[in-house]
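User: Could you check the structure of this?
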Amino acid sequence: MADEFELDTDDLTRRMDGAISSLRTEFASLRTGRASGSMLEPVMVDAYGQMTPVNQLGTVNVPEPRMVTINVWDKGMVNKVEKAIRDSGLGINPQTNGTIIMLPIPELNEERRRELTKVAAGYAEHARVAVRNLRRDGMDKIKKAKADGLSEDDVKFWETEVQELTDKFIKLVDQTLETKQAEIMQV
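Assistant: Sure, the predicted structure tokens are below.
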């Protein structure tokens, strides 16, 4: 059995890609002073007895560079959506006009930009931890195969493969963070 050992590096790659994808989603929710519908993705509303994303309760539009609008489909949900946005920590004060909620995006000051870069760094660290956990999973499988009789050469080969994959994804996390921080600090 030991001779047939082959680590599923495609699965590891797919799972590490998932960590990067999750990081990009979190970064999209960070305000950079420009309006974006994706900034509302993490906002959940208690609707119909369960937590529901805002984009499933109304149409999200960006009519101007510094304005996001939500056309809420159910008039009874307008107040709940507005409250969820206020409580989300986005720092946006919604204005309601019937079933349309307008979100004017204020200019970011220097202090807020620095806070957002720290938040981005925190998101990046979570992604790095996820990648390292996947590395550990791969290494554990290799150790188990070694205990089952996998040769030292094969152990070294697979450990190198997993480490190179990990290094590649950690570097990608760092590059993504650098790009996002530059975008946040841009005036």
